[in-house]
Amino acid sequence: MKYTGEERKYELSLRGVARIILVFVIPILAYGIAMFPSILLAYFLIKFLDFGNLFHIFIFSLSMMINYLLLVFSTILSTAFFINVLRLKYGEGEYAKTIMDKNTFKYTLYFALYYPTYRLMNIFILPPIKSFYLSLIGCRIGKNVFLAGEEWISDPCVVEIGDNTMIGGRSLITGHLGEEKLIVRKVKIGKNCLIGGESFIMPGVEIEDNVVVAAKSLVTKGKKLKSGKIYAGIPAKELKVGEKNQ
């Protein structure tokens, strides 16, 4: 559906109310299922450990780390299950900023499931696990992709990242913009690229193979970066041979 004009963000119809409820109920259900194994493990440990015993306290502290990892994996599987079963992946287009628009509804629910899960994985840096999760929820991500930490890929289902590419810490890659409408465009990053820390890659960007984007650069929407080049700045521009980033 393409945006065709001013529309109300909220509509008190049966369908509108149902969608608002689902935006709350489905994430609660997904995270509740994800937390169950960890809570069950903690329950049995508390039941059988003697907290007057220092060794048992040590065992419990180790189990909390195991519980965290268990929570990460169960959350990955639970949210990915709901995203795929409910077909929440969305594509390119221009959509009304109202939950009555099917794709905006899918975007909202996808985000509610994806965002907390990805942030949970960033408590400890787990690049292979993050790549695995992104692939489960629609991102076309290659081999040996390194996600440095605290990066944010806001729309995995319209993002492609090639083999051996590094995404620097606190970088932002987004496939959407919220203007008068919700605009979604694909972002493609090629093989053997380096995206410097705190860079901002906007919707519709295509980065060819072997490109370096310097730290804190802004690649504006729809821009194409040529293979083998170095780009830097706000907005990002090609650096010529011998030129220094000012």
- Ranges with pLDDT <50 over ≥5 residues? 1-10
What strand order characterises the main sheet? 3-6-11-14-17-18
H/E series, N to C? HHEHHEEEEEEEEEEEEEEEEE
Class by helix and strand content? alpha/beta
- Any idea how many domains? 2
> End-to-end span in angstroms?
44 Å
Coarse morphology: flat
Provide the helix percentage: 25-40%
Beta-strand segment tally: 18
What portion of residues belong to β-strands? 15-25%
Number of helices: 4
Q: What is the mean pLDDT?
A: 91
* Radius of gyration from CA coordinates: 21 Å
In terms of topology, how is this protein built?
Elements lengths: L13 H35 L5 H32 L7 E3 L6 H20 L5 H10 L3 E2 L4 E2 L4 E2 L5 E3 L4 E2 L4 E2 L2 E3 L3 E3 L2 E3 L4 E2 L4 E2 L4 E2 L4 E2 L4 E2 L4 E2 L4 E3 L4 E2 L8
Parallel strand pairs: 2-5, 3-6, 4-7, 5-10, 6-11, 7-12, 10-13, 11-14, 12-15, 13-16, 14-17
Antiparallel strand pairs: 1-9, 8-9, 17-18
Helix pairs in contact: 1-2, 1-3, 2-3
